[in-house]
Please model this.
Amino acid sequence: MAKVFVIVEHRQGAIRDATFECVTLGRELADTFGCEPAAIVIGHKVRPFAVTLSKYLPETIIIDSEELADFRYETYATVLKDILEKETPLLTLCPQSAFGMELMPRLSAETGRPCATDCVRVEMEGARLVVVRSIYNGKINSRLAFGPSGGYLITVRAASYAPAAEAGCAGTIRDYPCPAFGRPFKTEFLGYREAAAGAVDISQAPFLLSIGRGIKDVENIPKAQELAEKLGAILSCSRPVVDKKWLGKERQVGTSGRTVKPKVYLAMGISGAFQHLAGIKGSGVFIAVNRDAKAPIFRAADYGVVEDMFKIIDALKEKLGS
Ligand SMILES: Cc1cc2nc3c(=O)[nH]c(=O)nc-3n(C[C@H](O)[C@H](O)[C@H](O)COP(=O)(O)OP(=O)(O)OC[C@H]3O[C@@H](n4cnc5c(N)ncnc54)[C@H](O)[C@@H]3O)c2cc1C
Model:
């Protein structure tokens, strides 16, 4: 039976959440095409990951070697090229992340299989496989159809699909031999460095007031800080606020900042770029204030206020008193 492969992304001893979102899509597409979904786990001492994945998918393939302990596209792509050529899956899915972005285009070049990156939806349109990509900061969706091919490679944007639940049955785990690698390698893994958490730990805060470029000027930061204090919230922000050095990096929410899970996330003057939204996937009530009714953030928020954020700041301060 033809296969749909999900490449498992893991780092520092944990499977990345985005893998389970790819599992959801993998199962869906396998159903559509009458294929069997399978996970591919590459690394060293990664059997526990395979055991976890076997609770989600009927088959998990494991390629374990000391040389695969750290991610390096040369070794990982060699392994994947080998397995793709031998097992000829119809579809191979991988998270759109630094890992997926480095791996999949190279795999496409090496195997000749077409690759669509950063997809938010994958579906059938008649007999054609179509991907939807969100472009121009979420304002436009572009639909692209693949031409005929023996197999397709797709990277999936974080938070586009809900994480899969366990399947309720134990899948099989199959060991796959690690192929020999061509040498010398052009890259070297130097180490993994966690970004410093800094004095404020927004990842643990139950209530975050988050500000974006809409704050306009560094002189307006104290207004937001004051409201945060009145609300009992911690002040966080989008990346442009950090880039301008108006707030420290430890307060940045998103893919290149922190992942947060507050009970309440109040976003003001933030457009809702996917890199930001990916950092708040696990939040409780999500409220957005933006003066642009078409801002993408309103598609993700539970409550939306189309208004000038400074009016809302003043109104809330007045309501809360001194
Ligand atoms: C590799 C990579 C990693 C990234 N990582 C992150 C990340 O971790 N976190 C992150 O946030 N971004 C990240 N980004 C940047 C991301 O793509 C967006 O550019 C960024 O999130 C936009 O920030 P923003 O919403 O504050 O600004 P903008 O997109 O400029 O939006 C500002 C919003 O404020 C609104 N506004 C303006 N004035 C007012 C007002 N007075 N009242 C109300 N609303 C107002 C506007 O309508 C607009 O919607 C990353 C980008 C890349 C390429």
The longest helix spans residues 17-33. The pocket of flavin-adenine dinucleotide is lined by residues 137, 212-214, 238-240, 252-257, 269-271, 273, 275-276, 279, 289-292, 295, 308-310 (CB under 6 Å).
